[in-house]
Amino acid sequence: MSKLYIVPTPIGNLEDMTFRAIKVLKEVDLILAEDTRTSGKLLKHFEIATHMHSHHMHNEHKTVENLVKRLQAGETIALISDAGTPAISDPGFLLTRACVENGIAVECLPGATAFVPALVNSGLPNDKFVFEGFLPDKKGRQTRFLSLQEEYRTMIFYVSPHKLNKTLAEFVQYFGADRPVSVSRELSKLHEETVRGTAEEVLKHFEAKPAKGEIVVCVGGLIKTKG
């Protein structure tokens, strides 16, 4: 039976790959990979010989129609990204939506994703939170910050290393120097680190010691006052 499988892959430590993910990747007719060179190393490690096609943000608009036709013809396809769960700040949404619209079964396997461990180990409230992903580079950036100034839930951002200090400075500007912040980098990898403190304290830390690697930032929400 045709089906699209959304398959999470490790964000760093290969031991986070699930038995089920390996089984699915070995059994499907085709694997769609964000970067076939990166995913090729993963497949080789787990002795997965399934054929791969490239599926990334630059070609996904063009490939969706053909992939839907292949699924309708009875094929099974697995979608993976370079790391973590596809469609979370990665390609995957367009194909998933097209499958849903065409009555094709979609199944997302549970597995690795960066923002959940970053949120849990931040020490910030996690009963309610909002995932913001990557902030706009230029257009709409200030508007996004202004819209979040009254956000009371913990906010989660993906930030590239070379933009971290700028982003932390903007947290100080828009949320206040005392707003609690937690920066997790290289989650599940050898040099995993989480730095917690006020926005101002965390900014000073990374000004003195520039960050490297994959980064997730959690920011405490605005505390509601009574009255």
Helix fraction bin: 25-40%
What percentage of the residues does DSSP assign to strands (E)?
15-25%
Structural Rg: 20 Å
Q: What's the total number of strands?
A: 10
Strand order within the widest beta sheet = 3-2-4-1-5
- Along the chain, the helix and strand elements come as EHEHEHEHEHEHEHEEHE
- The structural class is alpha/beta
General shape: elongated
Give unreliable regions as ranges. none
Q: Give me the number of helical elements.
A: 8
Main beta sheet? 5 strands, parallel
Molecular structure report:
With 227 residues, the protein is an alpha/beta fold. Helices cover 34% and strands 22% of the residues. It is built from eight helices and ten strands. The chain has helices spanning 19-27, 36-45, 60-72, 93-101, 115-120, 141-148, 164-175, 199-208; strands spanning 3-6, 30-33, 52-54, 76-80, 105-108, 129-134, 154-159, 180-185, 193-198, 215-219. Strands 3-2-4-1-5 form a five-stranded parallel β-sheet, with helices on both faces. Strand 2 (30-33), helix 2 (36-45) and strand 3 (52-54) form a beta-alpha-beta unit. Helix 3 (60-72) runs parallel beside helix 4 (93-101) and helix 7 (164-175) runs antiparallel to helix 8 (199-208). The chain starts with a strand and ends in an 8-residue tail after the last strand. The mean pLDDT is 95.
